[in-house]
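Subject: Interface between my chains keeps coming out wrong

I've been trying for a while to get a sensible model of this assembly. When I model each chain on its own everything looks fine, but I need the whole thing in one frame so I can look at the contacts. Pasting all components below, labels as-is. Any help appreciated, I'm running out of ideas.
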Amino acid sequence: MPAQMNRTIAPKVQLPHSLSLGHVHEETLSNGLKVYTLDGTSQNILQLNILMPGGRFFEKKRMLAGLCASTMLKGTNSKSAREIAETFDFYGATIKIQANMYSAQLSLFCLSDKFAELLPLLMDVLQNAQFPEKEIEKIKRKSKQKLAVQWEKNSYIATQYFNRAIFGAEHPFGYLSDAKDIDAINREDLLQHYMEGLHLNSKSIVLAAGNIGATIHKLISDSFSKLSLHSGDEHQANIQPQEPDFKEIASKNALQSAIRIGMPSINIYHKDFENLQILNTVLGGYFGSRLMSNIREEKGYTYGIYSFLNPIMDTGYFCIATEVGNQYKNATISEIEKEINRLKNEEIPAAELAMVKNYMIGQIMKSADGPLSMISTLKNFVIFGLDLDVLNKQLENIHAIDAKQLQELAQQYLNFDKMTKIVAG
Amino acid sequence: MTNVEEFVLPNGLTVLVEEIESTPLVTLNILYKVGSKHETPEKTGFAHLFEHFMFEGSKNIPHFDSTLQVAGGDNNAFTTVDLTNYYETLPAINIETALWLESDRMLELDFNQQSLDTQISVVCEEFKQNYLNKPYGDVWHLLMDLCYKSHPYRWPTIGLKLEHVEHITLKETKDFFYTYYRPNNAILSIAGGVKTADVIPLVEKWFGDIPAGPSIEQPIKEEDKQTHGRTKEVTRDVPSSVIYKAYHCFNRTHADYYALDVITEILGTGDSSRLYKHLVDDLGLCTEIDAYLSGTDEHNLLIIEAKPEDGISLQQIDAAIVSVLNDLQETLVEKRELEKVINKACNYLAFTNESHQSKAFNMAYFKSINSMHLYNNEQPFYQAVTPKQIKRIAESIFTEANSNTLYYNASSNE
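Reply #2:
Try treating it as a single job with all components included. I did that and got this:
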């Protein structure tokens, strides 16, 4: 053991300037479907994701996308809900379908040597879902029960009203979730949404990662290229400018208040997007952020406070979210304002900026660490027509940006007075 | 198979290292063998509050998080009834920063009243956010109190009440640290893109001079065998009622543990499980039903929870659950059903083992229960489970005398 060890001196650190990304195999099948595969997990596993444009944006009726995704596994023209569940479970697999704002997503996790057994059923669900009345009713009751619990949570209430203020009450991203809308959905609606969005179409993308090898690769190409695809419609998810709103919603859970503060913002295609992400990280994008240090670590007003940029196709918004003790509600809002203004009025000190840069580089390395992390990262890029090279671009941006540029970005994109403020509690 | 290098420093620190070539990252995990079961009933929530305090700066490093972030790392921690666990994930080349940070906060913390006050406030907000201000937030408090009469598992890790956390003093914090946060009560594990030969001297350099603490001989209060069924009924302002049924089982290291896990899966995970098929599909009694193990080192509970369909009483569900449990006692499980559950377990294990972060924790965890032979090697234990074993265990566990039932009624349903 070295005798003169000095514990006050930090060990030297090193961070990469570029990433060696594992090989992503990209292929367009004869029917036009895009397939990405990432081989090379140490375990005998497979993760398959199918992205389809079947999210809320494509709904003909409110709440339809979510209900459609939950009911899709509940029967095909030859298999009952129970047979489907039994088969996936028997091979130890997990399958989920969920609808997001824009896309809908099917995820399958299984041992790679069971994939061949599961594939026929997967294709059946993708082509022949039947939406039996009995199952629809069951899912509707369960969804309404869950929704009722959600409306008891301040965080849910605040997010709902925030989205309404940002997108407008009639926009598919902005309407308030209502049990009555679930009641109004019938089997024809579900079938229509399935045929138009959750059925594979020319906008769908298949991604697979794991211990894949030639056999599984061929299985995927062969089965998916046999499908005839619908043509996907072009849509733009524009946000109509809304007036900034300030709303306090009284709920019965009065110990804490949920706060959402934010505004429409740029999307992933914008030249400033990656740099704005860096600014957001400084403000509230990680555990050591300014909002967290000030409002949690110094003042103890909250268990957590975060900010994020949410890009959704051609639009996006910026949001700060927290739950605070009721007595700290106003103090928290004024501290948020202070922190936003500090970014606009002062350059970020060199040490803090260096720290944020290194932290973000570490996060980028994590997002490319092995096929499973890479597929999760890639999934978020391909729906925008981008690929993993974005990571190297992000890395370059992080190395290049300086405090002055970030201050200008804050002045351009963050305006507390123009932000919508929602408080539920 | 895995290749874990294991050694113990003279001060009692157990060290485990596994090289994983495929990743440029590394996870350093430190498990302290102290959880809420080591607390006294008058001062609950202590272990968890202390976990927060560990991030408030140490003797030579004022800011834990930012120092790690400079090295490209991030971290988290959690406290359970049995243990407190900390981990950092960072580029493997910067492993020494994580060793420096963890060793410094094991050496000595910055015991500062202001930091303690802030963390007490943060934890009180966490208490409110997750337990008081949330529908069904008090379920765990009610259920644990019903199930355990003397064992300290009877209070959840967050603590019995806010007041306990509010009154924690700096002196108590210091005593706690010098009792439980000593190298001889900790397990350090490292998994990722490092070379064992490079790491060992670094571990010795940073941890070698930390003095050992007293050996901890604090017997945990035993739980007497339950002799009659218990029921509790509460009414709360929630949208729908819920029923919880919990049965006392046995320790994590018990030879029947994997069979118990299999039973839990047969009963209640997924839409092809017995409880789902019977109560949701066939009888239409509930919208959701689930079974799981509490996952503790000692005295595990098998817990079943269910939400009723409109117009169905919790008593009806209760009776239907019992009949499903009885069936396991009367009829041997078919081979195919057993195979299904084993496949699910293998799937879960394979996905877990793909992550070096899970590996780092699992190593430390199995070491903490003296069961390193299970690390990366649980599959054979699932495969060895037999239908007869399942029947025998079901017979011993699923009795009225061993049951704890919580009826959590929605006030709107009255």
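Reply #3:
Confirming on my end. Residues 329 and 396 of chain B are 9 Å apart (CA to CA).
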